[in-house]
């Protein structure tokens, strides 16, 4: 534990900075809160496959205690699997559909596909307004029989899933091809190598998603450039903290000691939800609390509150192979050459076509930048702000305002920065 005095010291400067901006913004007569902040809370829709799959996949990834800075796009994974489910039959299809099932969908396959397709389009439309997004999805095939053009066309139109054949080379060449595709998908960012090898046998289908996301705030954050703060993550590091006081949807769950904050992104087409334990601790306890029901409750309880936010300027990047986790969630037949049934992908597929991998590359940038139009916003009247001081691990969700779908989910366990040794 940190000595109390030190904690106070950590908090005091940003508070002063934030209060500085408070004083400035309350000089004028109080104005109504920004429309987006006042919009009614929208809990995750109970029939949304991206939340249902996202939370389960996240938990499966985090059950490996070595996972650090987990980041995934539930919407991209779910829609690519949704496309594959349309090309499959038998138990392969039912297991894929079960992954996307939610309690209130009566016809899981078709309805989940519809919901995902709509959400993808809605997010793509918000690109450039609420965030800058790059995203690509592809299904690679290795020495596969001729792929059904109706499947290719449908997956492209509804799920932006491209079909790409892998070259004739060995697994090293395959990996190289996949990596350079991911690099292009991330806008040129180098990504960490895959931990597990990909051995694409003849007939393998490899699903790949790549996404780069940078949220644009309604108003810019102040950056405390020269004076760095300590982020108390896996390692203690020095980071740049960004500050802003304003009106945000906020809730404190006293019993579970969790702060819930929802920050609307520029233009209101998407928002970022942050969950953080009251005190410095790793995320294990909070993660055990995460269910769609509890999240709905938390988001329902948020109300517009004056909050002084401090966030580390940070990037989270991840490279994931999801085979183990998806298998644990019940997707078993698709990987087995003898059992898998992708007859909708290719008529001559029986005994050959199978799933060879589900790969995921993602990066998330937390920066100070606001979107267009921040100058035209009304003044905010901020009073006695609550503190949301993110100097220790927290969880991030990015959700679409219109469809409610979950674009991103991330854990920030560690912020890159100069390491601090033995100071505490
Ligand atoms: C998180 O903290 C708890 C309690 O301090 C500890 O038992 C657990 O091993 C930690 N988990 C990780 C992933 O570090
Ligand atoms: C978002 O807009 C940028 C810039 O216009 C573009 O490069 C990018 O491809 C778009 N992303 C998507 C997912 O359409
Ligand atoms: C966000 O969703 C609410 C509720 O459906 C809607 O009233 C509002 O217009 C939406 N905002 C934007 C910017 O789309
Ligand atoms: C916001 O929620 C808190 C706690 O749930 C409550 O005490 C407060 O009165 C609420 N404020 C408004 C304006 O509804
Ligand atoms: C995050 O990455 C972007 C480029 O992708 C870079 O400009 C920025 O400085 C990085 N931020 C941090 C805190 O490292």
TrEMBL record:
GO molecular function: serine-type endopeptidase inhibitor activity
Region entry Disordered, spans: 25-50
Biased composition (Low complexity): 30-39
Domain Serpin: 55-415
A matching Pfam family: Serpin
InterPro entries the UniProt entry points to: Serpin_CS (IPR023795), Serpin_dom (IPR023796), Serpin_fam (IPR000215), Serpin_sf (IPR036186), Serpin_sf_1 (IPR042178), Serpin_sf_2 (IPR042185)
GO biological process terms on file: collagen fibril organization
One CC-aspect GO term: extracellular space
Domain of life: Eukaryota
Signal peptide segment: 1-18
Xref: SMART domains: SERPIN (SM00093)
Listed PROSITE patterns: SERPIN (PS00284)
Keywords: Signal
Family stated for the protein in its record: Belongs to the serpin family.
Protein's recorded name: Serine (Or cysteine) peptidase inhibitor, clade H, member 2
Originating organism: Scomber scombrus
